[in-house]
Amino acid sequence: MANSKLYKGSLSTIILKLLDEEGKMYGYEITQKVKAITKGDLKITEGALYPALHKLEAEGLLDVEVAKVDNRLRKYYKLTEQGEKETVNRLAELEEFIRSMQQLVKPKWSIQ
Amino acid sequence: MANSKLYKGSLSTIILKLLDEEGKMYGYEITQKVKAITKGDLKITEGALYPALHKLEAEGLLDVEVAKVDNRLRKYYKLTEQGEKETVNRLAELEEFIRSMQQLVKPKWSIQ
DNA sequence: TAATATACATAAATTTCTTATGCATAAATT
DNA sequence: AATTTATGCATAAGAAATTTATGTATATTA
Prior knowledge:
The structure is a homodimer. By secondary structure, the first copy, chain A, is of the alpha+beta class. Helices cover 54% and strands 17% of the residues of chain A.
C-alpha cells in the first residue's frame, strides 16, 4: 500500500488501543488484526512492530508472557496499570489529531 | 501541543491541499492558516515547513515566485500542473489513512 | 519439495521531524 | 527610547520512527 508510510507516530497508540480491546495479543496477531480492521490498507512491518513493543515494555506500559503454541513461540503482551492510563491519554491525542487532519483535508466544496 | 508530533508524513500533503485551495501562498501564511484551521492544535514549525517546500519544489510539484511586500520578502508558492495531479493522489491516500485510523481507534463500546 | 504462513528479532539506512540558531524588518508594548 | 512580539526567510544538528534487508525456526499448503 502506498499510504503505509503515513502512520508515523501513531503506531504505539494503535498497539495500546488493540491491547485495551483484546486483553492480550502477540506480535504477529497484532499485524494481522490491523490488516483486517483496515481491510489491508495499513500494514505494520515487523521491523517497526517489535522495536515498538520492546519500547512500550521498557517504558512500563506493557507486560510480557511467553507461551509455546504448536511448538512455536509466542510473546503475549498486555497493558500494565500504567499502560491503561497512558492508553486513555494517547487515544485522546490521536483522536484530536484525526479531527485536525479532517479539518485540513475536508473537501473544497463541502457544505459548511 | 502534545500531539504536534503526530502528523509525520502528512505535512507535504497538507501543503499541497492548502495551495490547491488558495491558489498561492507563502510559507509564513501556511503556518498561520494551519494554526487557524485546527484552532491551534497543529503548529507547523519553520524547520519542518521550509525544507518541505524546497523538496516539493525540487520534485517539480511547486513553482515559486518572489515578491517584496512592506519591504519584506515573501516567496509565493503555487502548484504546477504535475503538482495538481499529485495533490489528487496524495489527498486520496491521506483520506484513506484517516479512515483507517478511525477504524482502529473507534470507541470500544460504540454501536456497530 | 518448494512456497507460503506463522513467529520472533535486529541492524543499517532513510525519512521526517524538533530544536536551536541566524539574519532582517515592522509593529506593538513598556 | 528600548524591548518584545510579529513577520518572513533559512539551515544545521540531533532525535525519533520508520523501511528495508536479513536472519532463525517451525508448520502448512500446493
